[in-house]
Amino acid sequence: MQTTLFLSDLHLPATPSPLRSSFLRFLQGPAREANVIYILGDLFESWIGDDVGLQQFAPEVAALAALAASGVHLYYQHGNRDFMVGSDFFALTGVAPLPDPTLIELQSEPVLISHGDRYCVDDRGYQRWRRFSRMRWAQWLFLRLPRARREKIAGNIRGDSDAAKRNKPESIMDVNTGAIRSALTRAGVRRMIHGHTHRPGTYEVDLPTGPAQRIVLPDWRSDTQDYLCVDAQGMQQRSVGG
Ligand code: MN
To answer: Which domain holds residue 171?
Structure first.
């Protein structure tokens, strides 16, 4: 029986942080026991290009590369904060990028995995930004700006997004149930795992064909750094801990 780990929304900052130490402890400890690890987006709070990110996160990049070299299969989906993580990161770490969503097999059951932001369709403004920011030409132009300009733009976007969040009703920033139902139906599955919403838990979804489940991964905070473990014992939330 395989051990599969899922984690997302660590939001590691570019500056030294206890969260970064926890992640390194995770990579050197529990991650070594796993066969497969899925990172479902927003590992990094900000990523303005591989040229900058690989320097800022050099210890994490080295630890991911060491883990991949030890034989653990690492997969990565982009989040809304680190959607610019690019080919140099993947080449250097040995982590494999996955499209969002992706259908995987987990203990002989098909499961849909995603960062989750694509299902927050009630937030029209965000979805417009999402479509724009994922366009190749927009990213191509952004990456040609000097580092200081990119940092300023990324900082402004984060500031605008935080300000907008304060004025938006809570429900708008959650996933839309209809969007979840159609994604599950289209993929022909009864289970989905995603992050992004910072509302960890297991949510029941009624499909015309019967009950389904949506599992939301825990985001990392100063007091909790948890991940999901699926092994012979079933599915459990585990803690990296002090
Ligand atoms: Mn997110």
So the answer is: 4-239
Please give the helix or strand (H or E) that residue 235 lies within, else none.
strand 234-239
Of 56, 45, 119, nearest to 79 by C-alpha is 45
CATH, residue 89: 3.60.21.10
* 54-64: average pLDDT: 98
pTM above 0.70, yes or no: yes
Answer for the pair 107, 101: CB distance below 8 angstroms, yes or no. no
CA of 80 relative to ligand 1 center, distance in Å: 5
Distance of CA 23 from the midpoint of ligand 1 (Å)? 17
Q: How far is the CA of 151 from the centre of ligand 1 (A)?
A: 19
Question: What per-residue confidence (pLDDT) applies to 158?
Answer: 87
1 Cα–ligand 1 center, Å:
31
